[in-house]
Amino acid sequence: MSKKRLFILLVILTCLAVGYGFLAGLELPLEDFRYFINQHTILGPAVFIIYVIFATVVAPFSALPLVPFASYVWSPVALATYFFIAWNISAGIVFYISHHYGRDWIKKFVNLETVDRLIGKYVLNQPSTFWRLLLLRTIIPLDVANYAFGLTKIKISDYIIITLIRTAIGAVLWAWIPTQLIKIINPLPLAFIFIGLLIIAAFFLPSRKRT
């Protein structure tokens, strides 16, 4: 990393820390927030599911900063259910976009170089068995995997089964782990930690060229 990029990263993280300090001093009414969401038993989950779908389809966005608050509001079972629904809907949307509109549309949402590298390394140059594809679906990010699979000749039935297995595992982990963490760390600082990790990852990972 160049000194300029390192300086920018430090400035952003400093601003993030200042923002956290400001919000922490306000003593946000988290109990009132949880009560409000639970009073809107349809609207609350619907908004969360829609945002997770959007964050998965449009790869630069992430639902991760919302997870601590979602874990605070809902039970692990409810949160896992919402993630499972959102990720499967988004998987269908992304697969359709990738499969029917191809590379010209994909580059609007995700880094084509990453998709091409994954397809070339794990799909085209290897036997595309069900278990190999399931492993690939498990170890790479959901958004990139969905777009990558859409460019292959995978059977729809295999894609559906693989996606259901992967999203079920991911939903349980994303619901259970933050629920345990908020027993140690309050939702607000945990959310800022997640944001900081995303920012650091964005600076250290290769740039997302949209060519």
Can you walk through the features of this model?
The chain is an all-alpha fold. The chain has one domain (about 5-205). About 75% of the residues lie in helices and about 0% in strands. The protein is built from eleven helices and no strands. The protein has helices at about 5-25, 30-40, 45-55, 65-75, 75-100, 105, 110-125, 130-140, 140-150, 155-180, 185-205. The two termini are about 20 Å apart. Mean pLDDT is about 80; it is low at about 205-210.
Question: What does the secondary structure layout of this molecule look like, with pairings?
Answer:
Layout: H1 3-26, H2 30-39, H3 43-57, H4 67-73, H5 76-101, H6 103-106, H7 112-124, H8 130-139, H9 142-150, H10 156-181, H11 187-204
* Total strand segments: 0
In the predicted model, the low-confidence regions spanning at least 5 consecutive residues are 207-211
How helical, in percent, are the residues? over 70%
SSE arrangement, N to C: HHHHHHHHHHH
Count of alpha and pi helical runs: 11
Major sheet size, sense and barrel closure: none
Structural class of the helix and strand makeup? mainly alpha
Shape label: globular
Strand proportion: under 5%
Mean pLDDT: 79
> How is the quaternary structure best described?
single chain
Radius of gyration, in angstroms, nearest whole number: 19 Å
C-alpha termini separation: 22 Å
